[in-house]
Structure formats: C-alpha cells, structure tokens
Amino acid sequence: QQEKEDLPGKLKLREHLSQTAGKSEATPAPSKNIDLEMKQLQCKLKNSNTEIAKQSTTIKSLKEQVQEREEWIRELQEKISQLERDVTVKSHLIEDLRSCLKANQENEKTSNEALESLERKVKALAEDKKASIDSMKQMFNVAMKEKSQYEQMYHKAKDDLEKKDLKITKLERKVIETECAMTELETAASQQLHGLAKQSTQALETLQKQLLLTSDKVEEFKTFVKTLTGELHHSVRELRTKIKLAKKMGEMKACKNGLSQESLQLAASILNVSTTDLYKILQEGDDEETAETKMEFEKDKEWLQHIQKLLEAQFPFASYLMDAVLEKLNEKKKLVEEYSSLMKHTV
C-alpha cells in the first residue's frame, strides 16, 4: 500500500525528468546520434509512462477492490467479535495494531526522507546534461523493474484476495455452524427444563398425596387414642360405681335390709335412672364419699387433659402415652380385682 501511495510521486518525478529532457532538446546537440538516442529514449519513456499510467489505473481499481474487501472483512470481523467475548485477546490485538501503526509511521518517515533525497538527486542530475541520459537509462531500467515488481504485486494481491475469499467463506460456514449449535443447545435446554418442571409437579403431587394420607392416619390415630381413653375412663368410672354399690349392698345386707344387684338394676330401670344415679340417690348425705368421688373425678379430668396434651405435643410422645394408658389399665385391673372380691363376699 505504501508503494501504491508513493507511485504518483514517482510519476510526477518522471514527468519532471521528461520536461528537463525536453528542455535539453531545445539546446543544440553536439551530434545527430545523440538526438536520435534522445528521441528513442523519449519514446521509450512515453511508452513507459503510458504503461505506468495503465498500471496506476489498474492499481487504483485493485485498491478500490481491496478497500471493498477490507470493509467486507471488517463487517465479518465485527460479527465474529460479537460472538467472541474474550477481552484479553482484544487487548492483545489493540496492542499489535498500535505497534503496527508505529511501524507504519516510522516507515512513512523513512519513505518521506527517501523522497526528499530523490528530489535532491533529481535536481543534481538536471544540472548535468550528460548525466541526465545515463540517469534516464537507469530510470528506464528502474521503471521496467518496478513494472515487473508491480506485476508480481498484482499477482500476489490477486492470490491474497482469493485466499481471503476462501477464509471469508470458511468464516461464514463457522458462523452458521455456531448459530446452529446455539439453536440446538437452546432447544435441548428448553426440553430439559420442561422435563424437570414435569418431574417437579409430579413429585409435588405425590408429596401432597402422601401428606394427606399421613394427616388422615394421624387423625385416625388421635381418634383411636381418644376413643380408647374414653372407653377406659368410662369403664373405670363404672367399676368405681359398681364397687361403691357393692360396698353399699354389703352394708345393707349386714343390716338385713340389703338388696341384690338385680334388684338395684330393676329399681334403676323402674326409676328410669342409671345405676350411678341410683347410687348417688342412695349416697346422699355422705360427705366423705362425695369428696372422694370429686377427687376421683378431678384425677380423671387431669388424666384426660394429660392425654390430650400428649397428642398435641411434638414427636416423640409414644412412651409417655403408653405410660399414661398403662397407669389407667393398672387402675382398672385393681378395681376389677377389688370388685370381684367384693362380689364374692356379698354372694
């Protein structure tokens, strides 16, 4: 690119040399051979100038193509840079570009210095007419070499453009492949999330069912315990009343005015009252027995409250509940033994 930029300056320099050659033609030549040689050289110079002009036009067109390709490459690089998120690579690229820019600036300085030195040389060559012919020959040779160099550069640029086209096609394929991979990953992730959501809903439903079953079981257990304790309490109270009635019957039998159990039940049925109520009627006026029944009633009430607290308490409470139930069963056992002994004595 620097050589392309330096080309118009060199063309101007050659035009200047051709003008100096025209001025040298105005002065009388020492011989006809020199004039002929000058004319031949001028013709060659004109041909070389036309060839250089053609090459410059082709170079300009190539430069425009290269700019278009560079713009296209920049656009593709921007698209690729959006997909890439590596900040460190970008920083390294920026540092490389800065170093390249510094190198390019240094090259520009050296090229400017070289141009200044060439202008000085051209002025020195213009002063000497004889040396101008040699310089023109040399410049013609240089122009031919540059022409061959430009042709080589043209071919290289063409090859580079083809390589860049191949790279661009590869990059486009890679971009398409990455986009396809991203879409596949998104679909797979959405499917996995959908499956996980289904599994979580199913698990929640099963857990809710299990919770309902466990709550139902707990309620059934509570009702069982309540009914069991109620039955125990009721049976203990009946046993107490039966024992008291048996004691009363024993006392009444001792006084020869006693009644049998069957007669008491018959009297209770006639009066349309329970045996406990009949016992209360027969027991009116006995303060000690009423105080004892009150104490037993309070103990039973406390025992029922204790059972309710154990059912409402946190786990584990089975051992405490078992102790309370065994306590009541033992009490019932003692009452049964006492009642059976009383019944034997009364019989």
TrEMBL record:
Q: GO CC terms for this protein?
A: centriole; centrosome
Question: Biased-composition ranges for Basic and acidic residues?
Answer: 1-17
Offer one example of a GO biological process linked to this entry: centriole-centriole cohesion
What InterPro entries would the database entry show? CNTLN (IPR038810)
Segments for region (Disordered): 1-33
What protein does this entry describe? Answer: CNTLN protein
Species the sequence originates in: Prunella himalayana
What are the top taxonomic ranks of the organism? Eukaryota, Metazoa, Chordata, Craniata, Vertebrata
